[in-house]
Structures are given as structure tokens and as C-alpha cells.
Design goal:
The complex is a heterodimer of chains A (about 110) and B (about 800). Chain A is about 10% helix and about 40% strand. Chain A has about 110 residues and is mainly β. Chain A has one domain: Rieske Iron-sulfur Protein (3-layer Sandwich), CATH 2.102.10. In chain A, strands 2-3-4-8 form a four-stranded antiparallel beta sheet, covered by helices on one side. In chain A, strands 1-10-9 form a three-stranded antiparallel beta sheet. A three-stranded antiparallel beta sheet of chain A has the order 5-6-7, with no helix packed on it. In chain A, strand 6 and strand 7 form a beta hairpin. The radius of gyration of chain A is 13 Å and the shape is globular. Chain A starts with a strand and ends with a helix. Chain B starts with 7 loop residues before the first strand and ends with a helix. In chain B, the strands form eleven sheets. Chain B has a five-stranded parallel beta sheet with strand order 5-2-1-9-21, with helices on one face. In chain B, strand 36 and strand 37 form a beta hairpin. Chain B has five domains: about 170 residues, FAD/NAD(P)-binding domain, CATH 3.50.50; about 110 residues, FAD/NAD(P)-binding domain (3-Layer(bba) Sandwich), CATH 3.50.50; about 80 residues, 2-Layer Sandwich (Enolase-like, domain 1), CATH 3.30.390; about 80 residues, Sulfite Reductase Hemoprotein, domain 2 (Alpha-Beta Complex); about 150 residues, Sulfite Reductase Hemoprotein, domain 1 (2-Layer Sandwich), CATH 3.30.413. The chains are: A mainly beta (about 110), B alpha/beta (about 800). At the A-B interface, strand 1, strand 2, strand 3, strand 5 and helix 1 of A face helix 18, strand 39 and helix 27 of B.
Chain lengths: ~110, ~800
């Protein structure tokens, strides 16, 4: 049976206030973030500004600062915060019993579109 | 003749809080409806499981926590079968069978089996002396162990684990708590509150190991200790496993009921079999499983309504948590993870050890975390559950119910105006409101003037807002507003200088501690203050402070320079700009092996290899290490390069060995972290081919010695160096260099280059500290060298050997078609 969620690893594999990446067959990456409050978010690993790898930014609250030009991106909506404008796609993700589960449908849709 | 309708037979599996509460609710609605039998695994009447912690701590006796006495069972005609758990159920024949072989029929069955402690599958988990913390038997085992004294280890720093640790500690055991996550009670508390809790527990004598992963429990015939994955061993004669609970569903699963994480029920607590109900921690409702007591009451009401009266329906619960450790007040409720337009209001009172955080979304409270002062927990929780609009009291919400609802003082200024003249404004210096107002009236019309005259807000600064409100109230429109000082960032009202001074003065050793003691207004800072705090702590406590990788910019975390396409560039160190065939071959091999698209000579006389992927970095470093090269720190707020000319060894104009001195300087200074990048050059004569007069520290060799120059910059704003002094020997040049770097490290603001720093403090100040004050200079030099003794480990070698390997690896790969085919 094909489940709706894909297990991509354990929560503890992502450092608190950090991120890890999932590589797509297309070469694109999905960044999976873990906040200080132990929330997990998944975003396409590409800043809407100049495509910086968001996974390498500093995570604070529920935002990440892009490592290239310090744009702040909301982890929950993918929207740029403050004066900047732009948006990066988000991917549904949840935690169950310490495992990170990511939406299969969203990944497939994204993989097909990329 | 009318015969009474025969009573329906209700069998309850589970004699705990949920099962008995459900029975109470049913009896309250229709006492004559059922003939009831309750099976319980424990040999007790129903007791209050959440009060086991106070029993362990010696604050209560078992008799005190009994909810339903034997008399209750008897007077309601309930048959209690205790100490004999149900082991099988037959849904077709409608019977259940107990361990001792008792089989009994039912019309309705209620499953209330609660949950089982989760036992982590490590070697030694079955040794005598390893127990969980779930029932009275466990408490008895802990009390027996505590009588012997000795060492106890509690695995799990959640609610249950900490309560167990507290009890054992009070009973005289030496307790170590091992917690996998970086902060305690991470599901209920944010990082800031978790830090406060850890600090308090440590003050009480417990050892708290966070980020600690248990490898095995060892012992010969009985438990002797716990070994962590990092090799540490903690001795223990008792190990309490309190890592979590799982719904107890085995019986339901075997009987073929729908089971997910728990036994799945509808809004009326009915399972997939209409004659079987379930309630409590063993159920899953709408995808949610609860491990707290409050939802249980609501479930039992819905169950009884559906079974015997008007169906009402359970709608899920919002939960709150309180830690039952005497003297430590912790409260949390709802969702404090932020997100989706959530706003934080944070109040920190360092002197009282208070941290309060309320999370709002659309002017409604969605979550709260309180530490140290939980008096308003129930008020916030009430506002949260009712989803009340708090816009009108938003400004004063964080001060609590008494303040927010106290006589229409929704304007914080009005609240200050309402204070009496003898109300204390500044706790550090004992200054009353009347005193502050009188200095303002006699001419102190700025914050600094108030601080200078009556000392209010001149110490810890936490009353700055109050003093400013008094200025505004007293002067009216004449007050020019808040002073224009550059605070470290928007998370704090303190300046860089304030923060640096207080870190040293108060001996602060971690980022959460600084944020708490200096009243940070955000839960975990921002991308401006976190790297600054990390540096300030590192500088203040060399060899002691543990660097926080997540507070480092990407380049310093990955020890390479990120480029616009997300690849990295790698610059190996070449001491003084000198290289040799072996190094050049290694670099050439790396360029070919990893298909680096470009290799370039930098302005600092190094070779920069471009286009390396983060996954390849450790392998690249291993290859460069093999040829004797270490990190060039071209990515860091650190010593970058020492640029040299060829000097007296080759040059007909050279006066001294500038390359040799450059190599010595680089050997002394490499690896040091600084407020910003730092460049050095050594020129062999005043022709200055190494361009030493636009460097942070420049040495120009002359016949009679060495001229030292500081604070030059070749960047956006070109600045020539200031002349510092002239010295006679190489050693003196090195000592002055170390002292200057240390003064810069200790006093400049984070991200301030030496040029703006020296312009800010004045070259005369720097000369006074480095040149005139010889004793002070020697102290600076030795502090620098001490700090260097901890920082000259090649970060590349550590990474090449596997440290932090996850930073270079993907969490996973997703190839849609292969994944689908595999399943």
C-alpha cells in the first residue's frame, strides 16, 4: 500500500534551530527545518530572492534568514517577511513518534513540476 | 405484572482514572441502567495516578490519593476484580476473559486500559533495578531503592522523568537525568524556560545531561550504570525509564478493533464495534492521542451523554501542563511554536527568575509558557480556550490579570501614572517614582541625565521603559523620545557594550542565560544577535564555552565560503603566502578530482578553489590535509591571511626577514575568532609591497626595527592605517600584534572592523592601552595566547574525520518512481 506520508528520518537527525535537505531526482532540494520549539517545516530549498539555499540560514522563531542576502522567510508560509516580497513553496510535513513524515503527494507534485 | 427490565451488563477493562470516572458519569445520569463489573490489573482501588509524584516525594501517602474507596464500589453495586487483568475478549460471544481464567459476558464493554511506559530498546533494559514510573508498584520500587541510597539515573527529561528525579533526589539519592533532546520538557517548554528549569534543578544538586543518547544499561546481574553513545558512563543502582508513554492497545488490536496510534473512537467514544467503547489515554480521537488528565474528564462526559442520555459529543481538548516539583513553577498551554502570523509577547524578570511568554494569533491567545510566576496561567488558559479577543488589553496582557483588569489601566503610561510616589522604579538602586520625577523636574530631561543623577535604570536597565514613561509623563511634549542608542538588535534594549560588560560581570555562560538575564524580548533571538552573543561568550570564556553551531553564519558552520549558486569555495592556508610543489600538486589534484570550475589567486596571496558541493567538502579537506594544509579561515570572522613581500632573503631593498616574520605572525594568530575578519601584512621595507598600510595590522620593516600600523581597510571605505609605535625586535612586534588583536576581540562590537572601531574609540586610547600601559599590554598578550591554546585545532581535519558529518549529507533522497516501485 502506498501511504500518504513518507518517512524521511528521525527528528533528532535535524539539529534544533537547523535544517537538513532532501534531494529530489531532479537535483532540486527540499529543506526540512526544525525550530527551537520543535516544530518541523519543509520548504523548497531556494530563496525567492536570488535562490540562496535556505537550509543553510540561521533559524530563529519560525523564520529563517537566507545565507546570501539575509532575507527573512516565514517557515510556515514560505513568504518573505518585512519589506521584502516573494514566496517559496511549502510542503506539508508532520512529526509522528519522533519520525519526520513528509507529504507524498506534495513531493510528487513538486517533482513533476520541477 | 410488570417485571423490572433486566439491567444491561457493562464490563469495564481498567480500574484507573478514566474507567472509574466514566462509571461515575454514567451513574450520575442513570444509576439503575447497568450492572457493572470493573477489571483492574493493579491490586488496588482506583487512585489518582498523577499524584504518584507527591507520594514519591514524600509529600503525600497512598491513602491520600485514593479516589474511589472500597465503599464506593460496594454502595454502587459494582463488582471490582482487582489484580487480575483481562487478557482476551470475544466480540462475537460478547465475553471477556481474565488472566486467572474468569470469563464474563457483557452487553456493553468499556476499554480504559490507559497507556504503557515506553521502554527504549537498549541492551540491559531488563536488568533488575531498571523500572518505569507508571504505577504504585514502581513508586514502591523507587522508595525501596532510595532507602539504600546511592546513585540513580532517570532516562527522560520530560514531565514524568523530572518528577521522578525530584522525588528520588528528595529521598537522598544522587540523581542524574539523561535527556535526548537539547532542552528539558521540550514538548511543553520553549528553550528559554527549559534553560531556567535546568539551571534550577542543577542548583538543587541534580545532574542534567541534555543531548545525551543512551547506548546501554550495564551491570552484572543487576543494574550498575548507564553508558551513553559518546562513551560516558554514569553509575547507578536504580534506573528509571521515563521517556514517554504509548496507548495500551494490545487487547483491542487482538480483538480486531480499529487501532491507529490508539483505539480509534468517534465523538461518543464508540469504537469500530458499536458495543465497545473506549476512553482515556488508550484512545485516538480525530488523530489525537492525549497523555494528560484534563481531556479524560471531557471524554467521560461525552461517553456518558452518548450512552445513557442526550449525545453531546467530544470535540478534542486543548491541554495545559504544570510541573509538580515543589518550589518550581512551570506552566504551559496550547501552541507556543509560533508560525502562521503568530506574535510573541515576552516578559523576563531576571532578578526574580521569571519568564513569561504569550503567543497571539489574530488578537487571540494560542499558547503560553510561564516560568517562575505561574499565577496567571489559568487566566491565560481560560482566554485561550474561550478564544477571546484580547486586542484591547494587548499592551498589558503580559503583566497578568490583576494589572490588565485593574481599573481600566489598559494604557501602560496610565498604569505608571497611577503608581504612588514611593513606588519603587529601579530595584537595583532603590530609586522611587517620586525621586525620578523630582530629578526630571529639576532638569534631567534625558534618560542618560536621569541615570547620571539618581541612578535609576543605570544598572541592569530593566526599568528603562518605566523611566522613559516617567520622562514622557513629567515633561509632556517636551520629551524628545527614547534615546537614540544602537541596541544590539530589535530583540534587546541593551547595546553591544552593555551586553559584553554584563556577560563578563555576571559570568554568563550560555546564550539562553544572556537572553534571560538581559530581558530579551524574543524567545530565541534573531540572525543579528545570536552570532554576536555566540562570539561574545566564546571570547569571554575561552576553552569553556561550547560553540553554538546554529548561531553561526553558514560559512563558519561549513568552514567554506558559500557562493551565489549554493556551492562553496575552499581556501587552504599558505603560511605567509609561501607554498611548495607538494601543496600545489594537492590543490591541482583537488581541482581536477572534484571538477572545480575555477581556481583563483586571491588578494591575500592564497589559492581559492571554487564550485565545491557541500557533500564533497569533507573529502576535499581530507585531500588537502594529507598534503599538510589546514583551513585558511577565508570564510570566518577571524584571522584571514598574513600577506608578505619577499624581504631581505631575496630583495635587494629588503631590510628584515618579512616572510619569516609573516609566517611567525600567522602561526601565532591563525584560528582565532574575532568580531570581524582581520588581515595582516608584513612589508620588508618602506616601499611596502605587501600593502601593510591598508590592513587591520601592518608591519613595515626598517633598518632599525619594525613600524607597527593599525586599523587600515581596503574595503568600500578606503582607510590608511594609523601609526601605533615602533619596536626593535620581532618578538616585540609579535607581542604588540597579539595585544592589539586581543583588545579588538574584547572591546569591539560584533561585525565592527578595526577601522570603525579605532575611529570610535580613538587611536590615542589604543596607544594608551597597547604602548603606554606595558603591564596591560602583557596581560592582553597572554590572554590572547591563552585563548589561542584552544582555537588552533584545524576544523577541516575534524570534519574530514567525520565530525558533524550530517551537516554535509542530505537527510534523504526522493526518486518518485523508484520509491513507488519499491513498495
Amino acid at each position: 500500500m502506498i501511504g500518504d506520508w513518507i518517512d524521511v528520518g528521525a527528528l533528532v537527525e535535524i539539529p534544533m534551530r537547523g535544517a537538513r535537505t532532501i534531494r529530489m531526482g531532479t537535483g532540486e532540494e527540499i529543506a526540512v527545518f526544525r525550530t527551537a520549539a520543535n516544530m518541523v517545516y519543509a520548504l523548497v530549498n531556494r530563496c525567492p530572492h536570488k535562490h540562496g539555499p535556505l537550509s543553510q540560514g540561521i533559524v530563529h522563531g519560525d523564520a529563517v534568514a537566507c545565507p546570501l542576502h539575509n532575507w527573512r522567510i516565514s517557515l510556515s508560509t514560505g513568504e518573505a517577511l518585512g519589506e521584502d516580497e516573494g514566496c517559496v513553496p511549502t510542503i506539508p510535513v508532520k512529526i509522528d513518534a519522533g519520525r519526520i513524515l513528509i507529504s507524498r503527494l506534495a513531493m510528487l507534485t513538486y517533482a513533476a513540476a520541477a | 405484572m410488570l417485571s423490572p427490565t433486566p439491567r444491561e451488563k457493562l464490563v469495564v477493562i481498567g480500574n484507573g482514572m478514566a474507567g472509574c470516572r466514566a462509571v461515575e458519569e454514567i451513574l450520575a445520569r442513570d444509576p439503575g441502567r447497568f450492572s457493572i463489573t470493573i477489571f483492574g490489573a493493579e491490586p488496588h482501588v482506583n487512585y489518582n495516578r498523577i499524584m504518584l509524584s507527591p507520594v514519591l516525594a514524600g509529600e503525600k501517602r497512598f491513602e491520600d490519593i485514593i479516589i474511589n474507596s472500597e465503599q464506593w464500589y460496594a454502595s454502587n453495586g459494582i463488582e471490582l476484580v482487582s489484580g487480575d487483568p483481562v487478557v482476551a475478549m470475544d466480540r462475537v460471544g460478547r465475553t471477556v476473559t481474565s488472566q486467572q481464567g474468569r470469563t464474563i459476558g457483557y452487553d456493553r464493554l468499556l476499554i480504559a486500559t490507559g497507556s504503557d511506559p515506553f521502554i527504549i530498546p537498549v541492551p540491559g533494559k531488563d536488568l533488575p533495578g531498571v523500572i518505569s514510573f507508571r504505577d504504585m508498584k514502581d513508586v514502591d520500587a523507587m522508595l525501596a531503592a532510595a532507602d539504600q541510597g546511592g546513585d540513580a539515573v532517570v532516562i527522560g527529561g520530560g514531565l514524568l522523568g523530572l518528577e521522578a528525579a525530584h522525588g528520588l533526589s528528595l529521598r537522598g539519592m544522587k540523581v542524574t537525568v539523561i535527556h535526548l533532546m537539547p532542552t528539558l520538557m521540550e514538548r511543553q517548554l520553549d528553550e528559554a524556560a527549559g534553560w531556567l528549569l535546568k539551571t534550577e534543578l542543577e542548583r538543587r544538586g541534580q545532574t542534567i545531561l541534555t543531548g545525551a543518547d543512551t547506548a546501554e544499561i550495564f551491570g552484572d546481574g543487576k543494574v550498575e550504570g548507564v553508558r551513553l553513545k559518546d562513551g560516558r558512563e554514569i553509575p547507578a543502582s536504580l534506573v528509571v525509564m521515563a521517556v514517554g508513554i504509548r496507548p495500551s492497545t494490545a487487547l483491542a488490536r487482538e480483538a480486531g478493533l480499529a487501532v491507529g496510534r490508539g483505539i480509534q473512537v468517534d465523538d461518543h467514544m464508540v469504537t469500530s464495534d458499536e458495543n465497545v467503547l473506549a476512553v482515556g489515554e488508550c484512545v485516538e480521537h480525530n488523530g489525537n492521542v492525549y497523555g494528560l488528565v484534563a481531556p479524560l474528564w471531557e471524554m467521560c462526559r461525552a461517553l456518558a451523554d452518548g450512552l445513557v442520555s442526550e449525545p453531546s459529543g467530544y470535540r478534542g481538548s486543548v491541554t495545559s501542563t504544570k510541573l509538580k516539583v515543589s518550589g518550581i513553577d512551570v506552566f504551559s498551554a496550547g501552541d507556543f511554536s509560533g508560525g502562521n502570523g503568530a506574535e510573541d509577547i515576552v516578559l523576563r524578570d531576571a532578578s526574580r527568575g521569571v519568564y513569561k511568554r504569550v503567543v497571539l494569533r489574530d488578537d487571540r491567545i494560542v499558547g503560553t509558557v510561564l516560568y517562575g510566576d505561574t499565577a496567571d496561567g489559568s487566566w491565560y488558559f481560560d482566554l485561550l480556550k474561550k478564544q477571546e479577543d484580547v486586542a484591547s488589553i494587548r499592551d498589558v496582557l503580559i503583566f497578568g490579570q490583576a494589572f490588565a483588569q485593574g481599573g481600566g489601566q489598559a494604557d501602560p503610561k496610565a498604569a505608571v501614572a497611577a503608581l504612588s510616589d514611593d513606588a519603587e522604579i529601579c530595584g537595583c538602586n532603590g530609586v522611587s517614582k517620586g525621586a525620578v520625577v523630582s530629578v526630571i523636574q529639576s532638569g534631567a530631561c534625558t534618560l542618560d541625565a536621569v541615570r547620571a543623577t539618581c541612578k535609576a535604570s543605570a544598572s541592569c536597565g530593566s526599568c528603562t521603559g518605566l523611566v522613559e514613561q516617567l520622562l514622557s509623563l513629567t515633561m509632556g511634549d517636551d520629551y524628545e523620545g527614547e534615546r537614540a542608542v544602537r541596541t544590539i538588535c530589535k530583540c534587546s534594549s541593551f547595546t553591544h557594550d552593555d551586553v559584553r560588560r554584563e556577560i563578563v560581570a555576571q559570568g554568563m555562560t550560555s546564550i539562553p542565560e544572556v537572553m534571560q538575564k538581559l530581558h530579551w524580548t524574543t524567545p530565541d533571538g534573531c540572525s543579528s544577535c545570536r552570532p554576536a552573543l555566540n562570539y561574545y561568550l566564546l571570547c569571554a570564556h575561552p576553552g569553556v564555552y561550547i560553540d553554538d553551531q546554529q548561531s553561526r553564519f553558514v560559512n563558519e558552520r561549513l568552514h567554506a565560503n558559500i557562493q551565489k549558486d549554493g556551492t562553496y569555495s575552499v581556501v587552504p592556508r599558505m603560511w605567509g603566502g609561501i607554498t611548495n610543489p607538494r601543496e600545489l600538486r594537492a590543490i591541482a589534484d583537488v581541482v581536477e578530482k572534484y571538477n572545480a570550475p575555477m581556481v583563483k589567486v586571491t588578494g591575500g596571496q592564497r589559492l581559492d578553489i571554487f564550485g565545491i558541493r557541500k557533500e564533497d567538502l569533507p573529502a576535499v579537506w581530507a585531500d588537502l590535509n594529507a598534503a599538510g594544509m589546514v583551513s585558511g579561515h577565508a570564510y570566518g570572522k577571524a584571522l584571514r591571511t598574513v600577506k608578505t613581500c619577499v624581504g631581505s632573503e631575496w630583495c635587494r631593498f629588503g631590510t628584515q626577514d618579512s616572510t619569516g616574520l609573516g609566517v611567525q605572525t600567522e602561526r601565532m594568530t591563525w584560528g582565532s575568532w574575532m568580531p570581524h575578519k582581520f588581515k595582516i601584512a608584513v612589508s620588508g621595507c618602506p616601499r611596502n609591497c605587501a600593502e601593510a598600510t591598508i590592513k587591520d595590522f601592518g608591519i613595515i620593516c626598517v633598518d632599525s626595527g619594525y613600524e607597527l600600523h593599525v586599523a587600515g581597510n581596503g574595503g568600500i571605505k578606503l582607510r590608511a592605517t594609523d601609526f601605533l609605535c615602533k619596536v626593535a625586535t620581532e618578538q616585540q612586534a609579535l607581542d604588540h600584534c597579539a595585544a592589539f588583536i586581543q583588545l579588538y576581540r574584547e572591546e569591539a562590537w560584533y561585525l565592527e572592523r578595526t577601522a570603525p572601531w579605532v575611529e570610535r574609540v580613538g587611536i590615542d586610547y589604543v596607544r594608551q592601552r597597547i604602548v603606554e600601559d606595558e603591564v596591560g599590554r602583557e596581560a592582553l598578550t597572554s590572554r590572547f595566547l591563552y585563548s589561542q591554546s584552544f582555537s588552533q585545532d584545524d576544523p577541516w581535519a575534524e570534519r574530514a574525520a567525520g565530525k558533524d558529518h550530517e551537516q554535509h549529507a542530505h537527510l534523504g533522497e526522493f526518486r518518485p518512481f523508484i520509491l513507488e516501485a519499491a513498495e
